[in-house]
Amino acid sequence: MAEPGANELRLDARIAEMLPLRRTPAGVPIAACGLAHESKQDEGGIARDVSVELQAVAVGELASVLAGASPGMRIRATGFLAAKSLRSRMPVLHLSKIEFLEGNENGFQAQVEVQEKG
């Protein structure tokens, strides 16, 4: 088995698509969404326009929070990347923390983080 290593991604994004909340056979809630990011980044001293779309998934308590979000909402998503499945090696962001960025200009920000129970 591979040794643990750094695998954390933080991305400010817009929710582009929300899929319906579903549950595993054991009843654990799972929410999936599509995220869209656009920004300007410095690369070698040159400003570059960057855009990317990425699938994200939340499991457990965080899934219920994500399921309440709507397309168009801006969030700061934090989590780790993993392959979608054994057949599809496309990356999926598995969320561990969601910050809703709506309303920051008025000093309000909601932040949700679910800690694993161990």
UniProtKB/TrEMBL annotation:
Alphabetized InterPro entries for the sequence: NA-bd_OB-fold (IPR012340), Primosome_PriB/ssb (IPR000424), Prisomal_replication_PriB (IPR023646)
HAMAP family: PriB
This protein's name: Replication restart protein PriB
Cross-referenced Pfam families: SSB_1
Coiled-coil intervals, chain numbering: none
UniProt record similarity statement: Belongs to the PriB family.
PROSITE patterns documented for this protein: SSB
Signal sequence segment: none
This protein's UniProt keywords: DNA replication, DNA-binding, Primosome
Function comment: Involved in the restart of stalled replication forks, which reloads the replicative helicase on sites other than the origin of replication; the PriA-PriB pathway is the major replication restart pathway. During primosome assembly it facilitates complex formation between PriA and DnaT on DNA; stabilizes PriA on DNA. Stimulates the DNA unwinding activity of PriA helicase.
Subunit structure as annotated in this protein's UniProt entry: Homodimer. Interacts with PriA and DnaT. Component of the replication restart primosome. Primosome assembly occurs via a 'hand-off' mechanism. PriA binds to replication forks, subsequently PriB then DnaT bind; DnaT then displaces ssDNA to generate the helicase loading substrate.
